[in-house]
Amino acid sequence: MKYSVLAVLSALTTTFATAQEENDGLIRMKLMKRTDHEMVAQHLERENKALLLALEAENNPDVALVSKAASASLRGAQPSFEEQLAVAQGKSESVTIKDYSNAQYYGVLDVGSPPQSFTVIFDTGSSNLWIPEINCQNCGYWFLNGGKHKYDHSKSSTYKVDGSDFHIQYGSGDVKGSFSVDDVTLAQDIVIKGQKFAEVSDAGGLGMGYTMGKFDGIMGLGFEGLSLGNAETVFKNAIDQKLVKEGVFAFALGDNKEGELTFGGVDKTKYKGEITWVKLEEPKYWQITLDNVSVGSYSSGKTNGIVDSGTSLITGPSTEVQKIAAAAGAQANLLGQYTIDCSKVPSLPDLDFTINGRAWTVPGKDLVIQSGGTCLFAMMAMDVPNGPKWILGDVFMRKFYTVFDYENEQVGFAEPTY
Fold first, then answer.
1. Residue 344 and residue 364: Cα distance in Å, rounded?
2. What is the pLDDT of residues 336-377, one digit of tens each?
3. Which residues are the active-site residues?
4. Under a CB-based contact definition with an 8 Å cutoff, are residues 347 and 368 in contact?
5. Which of 180, 192, 223, 316 has the lowest tally of Cβ within 10 angstroms?
6. Residue 254's pLDDT band (boundaries 50, 70, 90)?
C-alpha cells in the first residue's frame, strides 16, 4: 500500500469535504465528541451518589475506606466512590492517573476480517489496544447507549491465538483478559497486519465510567515502555509496515467545532507560523518539562507534565490545584472536582504553561465546562506517586495544534488557524 496520511475528523454532525480537502491527500473519518451537557450531567449524577455514600459513612462508622495502589506503568479508571470519599476526607491520596469517564473524543476502528467495528478513545496516555470480547463480563448493557460492540474472533479469518494474560490493576479493581493477534484497520484504508491487542473478558475495574461511557475500548498512542505484554503499539506497527509516511501524528481539537487527528504527517492548513518543539523527558508518556505553571498570583516553578488526549481536564498536584481553585473561587466536592459560580466565569484569570521559554495560554473562560446553570472548573487535583505532576488534557489541547513526533521523541505546539 502506498504511503498514506490518516486524519481522524472530530465532529458532532456529518460534514462535507471541500474541494481542497478532497485533494490534500488526507483520509478522513468521523470522531464523536461528548457534549458539555453530557459531561455536566454525568458529573452531577456521580456527585449525588457520592453524597449518598457520605451520608452512609456518617451513619455507619464501620464503613471501610480502603486505598489501593494504582499501577505506575499503566493509567486507568475512575476510582470507586469509597476511594473518592477517602480522598475528600483527607484519608487517602488520589490512586489513579486516568479517569476515562471524563474522556470527550471517540473514533471508530475495525478489527479482523471481515472487519468488526469498535468505538475507541485515541489515548496518548496509554499504549495498548484493547476491546471487549464477545463474552465479556461487566462490559455494559444494551439499554445504556446501545451496549458495547464485542469482538468475536471466531468470525475473523485473520485471527491468531496468542493467549498470554492481559491484566490491569486499576485503583478501583481489575480488568482482565488475554492477548490475541489480528488485523486492525483505520479509516477503511490503512490495514495494520498482525497487531497484538487485548480481548477484555472482565471490565469490572473500570466501574460505571466504562459501563455508561460511549466507548468500547482504548487505542493507546504512547510508547512501548507503557505497553503490557510487550505488545507493539498500533502506530509503531503502522510505521514499521510503511503504512505512514512519517512517524508523526497531530491533533486539532476544535472548541465545539470540527477537529482533526492526522497520522503520518501534519495538516499545514491547521496552524500558522512555526511549530515549537519540546524534547520528551523520556519516551514513555508524552512527558515534557514545564518551565512554569502560573495563574493569577500562583506560580509553580519548574515542573513536568504529560500531554494527554485521553483526559478532558487539566490535572495537577492536589495542594497546587487547591490553591488555584481557591483563588478562582471554585468549590470542591466529594469527587475531587470543582464547581464555580457561573457569574464569575468572565473574570477568571488566564492559565499559562511556560514551555521552552514561551507561555501557552488557556484563557480563563475556557477553564470552565458549562451546561445550564452548572459550571465545572476544568482543573482537577490528582497526585501521582513517582509520576507526572501535571496532565495537559483536552482543555489545553483544544487551544493549540498539537503534534506528536514518535521517531524524534518530541512534542510540538503551534498557533491554530481553526
1. 10
2. 689 999 999 999 999 999 999 999 999 999 999 888 888 999
3. 123, 308
4. no
5. 223
6. confident
